[in-house]
Inverse folding.
């Protein structure tokens, strides 16, 4: 298991997914949150709107290096 998988929840049953299926961390955030002009992955994690399952070390690394922000914005770019 390695890496981070990102999921953008479009509805209760539909989501967009990016990242390995065997990821050690799965990050989920609602589409409405990512689509805001002032979206910040770190802030949304602290607000409790960006949820994660798995160890926090890889998540904090992704938040710190900006890859979580970049990947989530890219995944939501054409919503």
């Amino acid at each position: 298991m390695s890496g981070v998988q990102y999921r953008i929840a479009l509805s209760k049953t539909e989501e967009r997914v990016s990242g390995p299926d065997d990821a050690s961390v799965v990050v989920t955030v609602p589409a409405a949150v990512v689509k805001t002009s002032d979206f910040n992955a770190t802030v949304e994690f602290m607000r409790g709107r960006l949820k994660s399952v798995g160890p926090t070390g890889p998540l904090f690394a992704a938040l710190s290096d900006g890859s979580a922000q970049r990947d989530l914005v890219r995944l939501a770019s054409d919503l």
DSSP finds four helices and four strands in the chain. The first strand starts at residue 4 and ends at 9. Residues 4-75 form a domain with the Nonspecific Lipid-transfer Protein; Chain A fold (CATH 3.30.1050.10). The radius of gyration is 11 Å.
